[in-house]
Structure formats: structure tokens, C-alpha cells
Design a protein that fits this description.
This protein is of the alpha+beta class. The chain has 2 domains: 77 residues, Immunoglobulin-like (Sandwich), CATH 2.60.40.380; 287 residues, Purple Acid Phosphatase, chain A, domain 2, CATH 3.60.21. 26% of the residues lie in helices and 27% in strands. The strands form 5 sheets. It has a 7-stranded mixed sheet with strand order 11-10-9-22-23-24-19, with helices on one face. A 7-stranded mixed sheet has the order 12-13-14-15-20-16-21, covered by helices on one side. Strands 1-2-6-5 form a 4-stranded antiparallel sheet, with no helix packed on it. Strand 5 and strand 6 form a beta hairpin. The longest helix is centred in the C-terminal third of the chain and has 31 residues. The protein is globular. The chain starts with a helix and ends with a helix. The structure holds fe (ii) ion. Fe (ii) ion (FE2) binds next to loops.
Length: 471
């Protein structure tokens, strides 16, 4: 009888392990020689696809360039490598940045949780190689955050693009090796350097890992120097607003219990940003967590504190949105310094958030700023960091957000060896405070900000036209 019980218990254990463990991502780290070979074989093309997050966890989106005359915006997807129960999804083509190609965009829907899929896209000539995409749990899940990938850094040189591509490949590979349970990646922007070169996007899409990890990429000021983001991405629920122009856009998406509000912080159109947040929140009243994403680093760390466009204008536009909608966490980048704030309301610290601690139903928002892939260590830390409890700038980093039950665990690790640098857990058993009298007053006062934002917007359009793009 003891033997039978032992056997049964071991079966149960094996079964449990098989349910919670995930296959590793196919995302190898590469040596300089291996990367050079990959880079040189792909650099003269611009047709690598991007896997993007869907409107929710049951969708993903694929976007790629194809020859205008041959393009077929179709994706085939099925279960397992044999692609059982294969389905074909058809999308649409829109004009590309050149005359010879079009942009293909397809949304794949009806995905089931904890399922291994393989997919292929139609290149225009044939079906592509098979790529694996594994869905994870739709309730408990993990996201990876990496910022300022900024392929090309501050240049348009292919040597720097290649250098950043290798760093990006290897940090992503490290993050995926350590987190085989990750469901998607979020970046607070500056994906490219000039925003004008197809090669920047092609390089960003070279790492094998991106074929299996849907990405949500915010727009940064470097992307905003050109229009390429418009042709190489396919984000869900894009919001083009009343006053947005050109590349300007926000978007939102949902994964499990988490609602992401992703802002184009290079536009001062407060009315549009607030309207997007309102729409997203009203459509997702049951989302337990709300996370804001924007490029510029509100409150620092680093030189941001000396930048009036961020400290005055963006603070006035975005802080009330995050406070009004009781956001739990805001992801930023831009200053190339990894850091995490204490709990903040408006622009003030209202409570300490110490590394390694768990806080239950805290008052205030955590701001997390990402380090850059394209640059480590060039900005020093001589500026005051009163709001920030943790910062680091001389190594690559990545952050994970892990959602389980009532908790969100935020961990930041080194990008080369996953050494833990910072960790904090928020436990939330309350609902969002959307309807307090103070919130009504804040919304009324925000009308003034919306008006001032519009006036600034008109002036900024002239400034941007004169300087030939965003800083
Ligand atoms: Fe930036």
C-alpha cells in the first residue's frame, strides 16, 4: 500500500511540474562572430516580422514588409510543431515608406492558454519558416521590461546599429533564459535612433527571441525623429485622438488582470491622453492593475531633473492622469539610468518603498525607469534623486513584472547574469479609487491643463518643424 501511495504521489508531482514548467525560448546568446554572421546575412533586407501584443491575451499581431505585387497578408497557426488544427488568419496591407513594398498586418485571435503554437507568415513568395509561440497562463503571468533599445544610439551608423543589436540580442536572451514563463515584453520607447532608417527596425528584429515574445513598444523622442514606427509596428487599440498629428498616437492593451496605458509622451495633447486613459479604463472596469507606460522619465533620475519639458510640461500633463486613474506603476526610460521611485502622489513622495519589502494596499504610484540597451554609464548620478530608492547605470538591466493572485512583484536584474539588483512586491486587495470627490475636482482642473497643452502643442509643432524633429 505504501508503495502504491508513493507511486501515486510521484505521479501527481510529475504532473504538477509538467503543468507549471515551460519550454525554454529559442533565444540564444551570440558571440561577436556569430552575431556578425547573422547581422551581415540580414542587414540588407527589411522584411523581418514583428510579433506584437494583441488587445488581450487571446490575440497576437504580426507585421512585416512584402513586395507590393506579391504581398499576401496571411498567417497560419496551429498547435505543436505539426501545426494541428491549423487556421489561417487574413489581414490587410497598407502603404509602406517606399513605392516597391506594402506593410502586411494580421491579427491572430482565439488563442488558448498554456498552449504551444507554431506559426508561419506569407512572405509574398512562400510561407515562412515555422516559429514557436507559447501562450502561458492567462491569469498569473510575467512581463519583461527593457527600455531604450535605441538601435543606433545617437547615430545612423551601421557599426553602432550592429553593436546595439548584439547587446539587445544578449540581454533579451539572458532575460528569456531566466524567465521561460514570460508572456510578453514592454518597452517605454526609443526603439530606434533616427526613426528614419529601415535598418534600425530590421536590426531590432534580428534576435530569434522576438519571434516568440510579443512586444508592446511605446514611442520615444528618437523614434519621433522620423515616421518609421508607423510602418514597422502593429500595436492594438491605437488611439489617434482629436489633436494628434503625424506619428502621434497612444495605445492600450490588456493581459489577464492588467491594463496597460501606453502614451506617446512626445505629444503634449493632454486632452487626447486623458481621453485615451478614460476610454481604456471604462472598457476594462475589472482590471485589477493599471500600468502607465511613457518614454520620458518623470522626476528623474539623472539629468531629467534639469529638463523643463519633462519636469514642468510632462509632469503637468501625465501626473494627473496617473493619479486620476489610480495607476499602480508607471514605466519610463529616456535618461538611460535604471531606477525605481518611492510611492508618489502628484510630484511628492508619500511613502518609502524599500527594496526587498512587500507593501499592502499602498497609497501612491511607483515610477520605474529603465536603463538603455544602447548605452551604459555615460550619464552620471550627480543630480539629486530624492524620489528614487534605487538606481544603477553602468550595467545592462532588465525588469520583470510578475502578477499572481493579489500581488505584483517587480524585480530588476543585471542584463548579463541576472543578478538581482532590486525587488519590491505590492499586494492589492482594494479596488481602484476612481470616484472620490478629489478625483472629480482633479478632472475639472485638468481642463486648464488640456487648454495649455493645446497652446503648447501649436508652438511645439513650429519648434519641431524648425529643428527638424524631436530632441
Ligand atoms: Fe529618449
Amino acid at each position: 500500500m505504501k508503495k502504491i501511495i508513493a507511486l501515486l504521489l510521484s505521479f501527481i508531482l510529475v504532473f504538477q511540474l509538467s503543468v507549471v514548467s515551460f519550454a525554454a525560448f529559442d533565444a540564444p546568446k551570440l558571440s561577436q562572430t556569430e552575431w556578425d554572421k547573422l547581422y551581415n546575412s540580414l542587414k540588407d533586407d527589411n522584411t523581418l516580422p514583428m510579433l506584437c501584443v494583441g488587445a488581450d491575451e487571446t490575440e497576437v499581431r504580426l507585421v512585416w514588409h512584402a513586395e507590393k505585387d506579391a504581398a499576401k497578408p496571411e498567417v497560419k497557426i496551429g498547435k505543436g510543431e505539426a501545426m494541428k488544427n491549423v487556421k489561417t488568419f487574413k489581414g490587410e496591407t497598407t502603404e509602406a515608406e517606399n513605392e516597391e513594398q506594402v506593410v502586411c498586418r494580421v491579427t491572430v485571435s482565439g488563442l488558448e492558454e498554456n498552449t504551444t503554437y507554431y506559426y508561419q507568415w506569407h512572405t509574398g513568395e512562400k510561407w515562412s519558416e515555422k516559429c514557436k509561440y507559447e501562450t502561458k497562463s492567462f491569469t498569473s503571468h510575467k512581463a519583461i521590461v527593457i527600455g531604450d533599445i535605441q538601435i543606433g544610439g545617437q547615430t545612423d551608423e551601421s557599426t553602432k546599429q550592429s553593436e546595439d543589436g548584439l547587446t539587445w540580442n544578449n540581454v533579451l536572451a539572458e532575460a528569456l533564459e531566466e524567465n521561460s514563463d514570460a508572456s510578453y515584453l514592454v518597452s517605454p520607447g526609443d526603439n530606434t535612433s533616427t526613426g528614419k532608417g529601415a535598418g534600425e527596425w530590421q536590426t531590432l528584429l534580428m534576435p530569434k527571441g522576438v519571434r516568440s515574445l510579443p512586444m508592446a513598444l511605446a514611442i520615444g523622442n528618437h523614434d519621433k525623429k522620423g515616421m518609421m514606427y508607423n510602418y514597422y509596428t502593429s500595436m492594438p487599440n491605437e488611439y489617434f485622438g482629436k489633436y494628434f498629428e503625424g506619428l502621434d498616437r497612444d495605445f492600450w492593451f490588456r493581459h489577464g488582470d492588467v491594463l496597460y496605458l501606453v502614451f506617446d509622451a512626445c505629444s503634449a495633447s493632454a486632452a487626447d491622453h486623458m481621453a485615451m486613459a478614460k476610454e481604456a479604463v471604462e472598457k476594462n472596469p475589472d482590471a485589477k492593475w493599471r500600468i502607465g507606460v511613457m518614454h520620458q522619465a518623470l522626476f528623474g533620475p539623472g539629468y531629467s531633473i534639469l529638463d523643463p519639458e519633462t519636469t514642468i510640461l510632462l509632469n503637468a500633463v501625465f501626473t494627473p492622469i496617473f493619479d486620476t486613474y489610480d495607476v499602480d506603476l508607471v514605466l519610463t526610460g529616456h535618461s538611460h539610468l535604471q531606477g525605481r521611485s518611492h510611492f508618489m502622489v502628484e510630484s511628492s513622495v508619500v511613502g518609502l518603498a524599500k527594496s526587498g519589502e512587500t507593501y499592502k494596499n499602498p497609497n501612491g504610484i511607483i515610477y520605474l525607469n529603465t536603463n538603455a540597451i544602447c548605452d551604459q554609464g555615460s550619464f552620471d548620478l550627480e543630480f539629486p534623486h530624492t524620489a528614487y530608492s534605487f538606481f544603477e547605470n553602468d550595467v545592462t538591466t532588465y525588469t520583470t513584472l510578475e502578477f499572481e493572485g493579489d500581488t505584483m512583484k517587480i524585480e530588476t536584474k543585471r542584463g548579463d547574469n541576472s543578478e538581482l539588483l532590486d525587488s519590491i512586491t505590492i499586494e492589492k486587495t482594494r479596488k481602484q479609487h476612481d470616484q472620490t470627490p478629489l478625483k472629480w475636482l482633479q478632472r475639472a482642473l485638468y481642463k486648464v491643463v488640456e487648454l495649455l497643452g493645446l497652446i503648447y502643442l501649436k508652438g511645439d509643432n513650429i519648434t519641431v518643424a524648425i529643428r527638424g524633429g524631436h530632441f
